């Protein structure tokens, strides 16, 4: 009774208490990474300067900060109500996803 159980889960959006095993919440995994495309060919002429400027920029960040710029993974838990609202507008643009 009243055990401080660290396995208790909370909705990341509204703070509602979630319970494992009763299907009352969703887990949302977000994986975000910087544009993986290779640089445009036209940059080849100034390639050396570009690399130098990139290195200079990179050195201004800590390693962790730089990684956060390039790659980010999040895992959120949303209660059923919050999930239903979020999935309709995951980008917050107000434009519904591809519906009909
Ligand atoms: Zn919620």
Element-level helix/strand string: EEEHHEH
Instruction: List each distinct ligand once.
Output: zinc ion
Q: Are there runs of 5+ residues with pLDDT below 50, and where?
A: none
**Protein structure class:** alpha+beta
Radius of gyration equals: 21 Å
Q: What composes the largest sheet?
A: 2 strands, antiparallel
Strand content: 15-25%
Shape: elongated
- Give the fraction of residues assigned to helices: 25-40%
Number of strands: 4
Number of domains: 1
Averaged pLDDT: 81
Q: What is the end-to-end distance?
A: 49 Å
Characteristics:
single chain; 100 residues; alpha+beta; two-stranded antiparallel sheet; two-stranded antiparallel ribbon; 4 strands; 29% helix; elongated; binds zinc ion
Question: What features would you describe in this structure?
Answer:
The model has no long low-confidence stretch (mean pLDDT 81). The chain is elongated, with a radius of gyration of 21 Å. It is 29% helix and 22% strand. Strand 1 and strand 2 (17-18) form a beta hairpin. The strands form 2 sheets. A two-stranded antiparallel ribbon has the order 1-2. A two-stranded antiparallel sheet has the order 3-4. The protein is an alpha+beta fold and 100 residues long. It has helices spanning 47-59, 63-70, 80-87, and strands at 9-10, 17-18, 25-33, 71-79. The chain has one domain. 5% of the residues are buried. Zinc ion (ZN) binds next to strand 4 and helix 3.
